[in-house]
Design goal:
By secondary structure, the protein is an alpha+beta fold. It has one domain. The protein is about 40% helix and about 30% strand. It contains one helix and two strands. Helix 1 links the parallel strand 1 and strand 2.
């Protein structure tokens, strides 16, 4: 499965995106972050 995550911004948004990306990649998801 492949997910594209976009529109997460504001204070701590990029940190949350990285945490989410790492979490999903550990579950064998392919993740691309778009800011």
């Amino acid at each position: 499965m492949f997910l594209v995550i976009e529109g997460i911004d504001g204070a701590g948004g990029s940190t949350q995106s990285r945490i989410l990306k790492k979490f999903l990649e550990e579950k064998n998801f392919k993740v691309e972050l778009i800011s």
